[in-house]
C-alpha cells in the first residue's frame, strides 16, 4: 500500500500552444520562477530534439515527452522535480496511444497525468475522433481510480479537456450550445467523469462504479463554486482576453482523497495581452495534508 507522503504538492497544467513558440515568448522565464513540483504540458507540437536544451531537459526537472506520430501536432509532456517511479505513455488505445495525447507518471502516493483531449469540430471527422477518444478514455479513468484505491494512492489528471462543463465555464455559453466544446453530449460525458461511483453503485456492470461514472472531482470548481470561470483559454481573435471572454477547459481532475487536500487553486493569467506566451494560462493547484 502506498500513501500520499508529500507534505505539500503543487501541480500546474498548461496548454503551451507550441512549446518552441512559447519558449521564445516567455515560457522559459516562467519555468525558472514557478514553484510547481509537477508541470503538465499539452499541445507541445515538437519532437524532443527540436526543443532548446533548457526546455527539453531543464536543470532540476525530470522530464518525459510524448510527441505525436503526426509531426507538428498535439504532444504532451510531464516535468517533475522528483524522478518518477513509473512512466506510461498512452492508455492502452490502439488508435490514440501514438497521438501525443496522454502520459502519466507515478510519484510517491499519487499518479499524475497530462491529457490533451481532441478539440473536435461539429460535422467533421475531428468530432468523430473526439467522441471515439472519450468513449475509450472514460473506462480507463475508472480503472485507474480503482487501481489507485486498491494501492492506497491518489490520481490527478491535468490538461486541456476541450469541454466547458457548465455555463459558468465559458463567457458566451448561449452562443456556443451547438459548437464543439459545449455540446450537450460532451458536457454529459464530462459529468460522468465526475459522477460519484460510490453513490451510484455499479449500474453499468463493469465493476468500476455507477452510470459510467469515474468518481473524480473538478478541483478548481470545488474551490470556486459560485464564480464564472476562472477562465483558462481566450481566443487570440478580437479582444477576448482583454474582455475576459474566455472558456474554462483546462482542468485538474482528482480522486476525492486528493481533492480534499486541495487548499488553493488559481489561473496564472497574464497581466496584459502582450505578456501571454500561449492562448491558455497555467492552472495551478496546491495540495496540502
TrEMBL record:
The answer to whether UniProt assigns keyword Magnesium to this entry is: yes
- Stored CDD domains: Nape_like_AP-endo (cd10281)
Domain Endonuclease/exonuclease/phosphatase: from-to ranges: 13-280
Recite the UniProt keywords alphabetically. Hydrolase, Magnesium, Metal-binding
What this protein needs as a cofactor is:
Mg(2+)
Among SUPFAM superfamilies, the record links this protein to:
DNase I-like
- Short name of any one Pfam family annotated for the protein: Exo_endo_phos
Its family? Answer: Belongs to the DNA repair enzymes AP/ExoA family.
Protein name per Swiss-Prot or TrEMBL: Exodeoxyribonuclease III
The source organism is Streptomyces tauricus
